[in-house]
Amino acid sequence: MIRVTFIKNSADELCGFRMKGHAEFAKAGEDIVCAGVSALVINTINSIEAFTQDSFSDDVQEAEKDVVFFAISSVPVSHEARLLLESLKLGLSGIEKDYGKKFIQIDISDEKQEV
Questions:
Q1: How many angstroms separate the Cα of 67 from the Cα of each of 9, 22, 28, 63, 81?
Q2: pLDDT in tens, 43-97
Q3: How far apart are CA 113 and CA 71, in angstroms?
Q4: pLDDT of residue 7
């Protein structure tokens, strides 16, 4: 299962996410859940980099079951970056609704992060 946890900063703004795991909806190369999630995540990171001035850190740790961590350190988070993160959350929530929590689960961290 893919688990995505969205992170809020001390100003209660969506500022990043942590993604871990594999959907295991189908065999490698045919897993449409993993493909959809990957496309949304990569596009969001690339869009924030291309279309905003926000500072961020990102890290991909393949050795730890494919963990992706992305966090905007700018406070306040720009309107554009917040919109892109909300769009990611909407897209991932749609995949969760269509394919089920067996393959992807979306959470929002209650703990505020200083990034």
A1: 20, 10, 17, 8, 21
A2: 999 999 999 999 999 888 765 566 899 999 988 999 999 999 999 999 999 999 9
A3: 9
A4: 95
Other beta carbons within 10 Å of 12: 8
Buried b (16+ CB within 10 A) or exposed e, 83-100: bbbeebbebbeebbeebe
2-9: strand order across its sheet: 56-61, 67-72, 14-20, 2-9, 104-113
Q: Selecting from 3.40.720.10, 3.40.50.620, 3.20.20.370, 3.30.70.1490, what CATH number does the domain 2-110 have?
A: 3.30.70.1490
23 DSSP β-pair partners: none
Nearest to 85 by CA among 9, 4, 16: 16
Q: Could you tell me the residue ranges of all domains in the chain?
A: 2-110
- Using CB atoms within 10 Å of the CB of residue 79, give its burial: 0 to 12 exposed, 13 to 18 middle, 19+ buried: exposed
Q: Which residues, other chains included, contact 102 with Cβ-Cβ below 8 Å and sequence gap of 6+?
A: 1
